[in-house]
Specification:
Length: 248
């Protein structure tokens, strides 16, 4: 915490709840609350013996108001601290070379200047403005930068959204293509299955027909073969016959 803030916090602790100023001659009453002597005396003025604490409404004895030396010391210390704060602030705002207040800001050197500095040859040709104006300019620049950055942020968000959209579209396309391939192959598979069944049934039929035809052929050639065999046998017999018998 900066020392200034610290002093302010401390000061809050020694504020009189009646006049809302720093306690003057702080006193404590029966309930434990603290006030300026003057403030609490005014409250108790109209009553005799007892009065109500303006903070907690407790009934307290009028003659039990007592000075709080601890609090008084604290108030004095805080006031001393505040005084030194003010002094150091004044010192910060004073040119150490000329003991004059800073009123200007040199844009070239980034330095605060008193009116003597400003007229000096060091800064005479420099771009010098009043501190308030320089601060305003700076605020303006900051504002501009904020706007530029906000615009960039907006654009980045848009680009990101577009990117996300593109990825979504691509993912959809991939899924669609996958489904298309699956469907196509399922169809192909069906067609091939049908073709296979058709060819198989055809080959079964051919096989069956062939076997039947073969059987039929064998059956039909059997008597012819027998006849031929008989003929061959008789011819063989004739072959072995003596010539005479053969020519009979
Ligand atoms: Zn007071
Ligand atoms: Zn009280
Ligand atoms: Zn100066
Ligand atoms: Zn300068």
């Amino acid at each position: 915490m900066a020392s200034g803030q610290f002093v302010n916090k401390l000061q809050e602790e020694v504020i009189c709840p009646i006049c809302l100023d720093i306690l003057q001659k702080p006193v404590t009453i029966d309930c434990g609350h603290n006030f300026c002597l003057k403030c609490i005396t005014q409250i108790g003025e109209t009553s005799c013996g007892f009065f109500k604490c303006p903070l907690c409404k407790t009934s307290v004895r009028k003659n039990a108001i007592r000075f709080n030396s601890l609090l008084r010391n604290l108030v004095e210390k805080i006031q001393a601290l505040q005084a030194s704060e003010v002094q150091s602030k004044r010192k910060e705002a004073t040119c150490p070379r000329h003991q004059e207040m800073f009123h200007y800001f040199c844009e070239d050197d980034g330095k605060f200047l008193c009116f003597v500095c400003r007229e000096s040859k060091d800064h005479k040709s420099h771009n010098v403005s009043l501190i308030e104006e320089a601060a305003q300019n700076y605020q303006g620049q900051i504002q501009e930068q904020i706007q530029v950055l906000q615009q960039k942020e907006k654009e980045t968000v848009q680009v990101k959204a577009q990117g996300v959209h593109r990825v979504d579209v691509f993912t959809d396309q991939v899924e669609h293509e996958k489904q298309r391939i699956l469907t196509e192959f399922e169809l192909l598979h069906q067609v091939l299955e049908e073709e296979k069944n058709f060819l198989l049934s055809r080959i079964y039929w051919l096989g069956h027909e062939g076997t039947e035809a073969g059987k039929h052929y064998v059956a039909s050639t059997e008597p012819q073969l027998n006849d031929l065999k008989k003929l061959v046998d008789s011819l063989k017999t004739k072959q072995n016959m003596p010539p005479r018998q053969l020519l009979e």
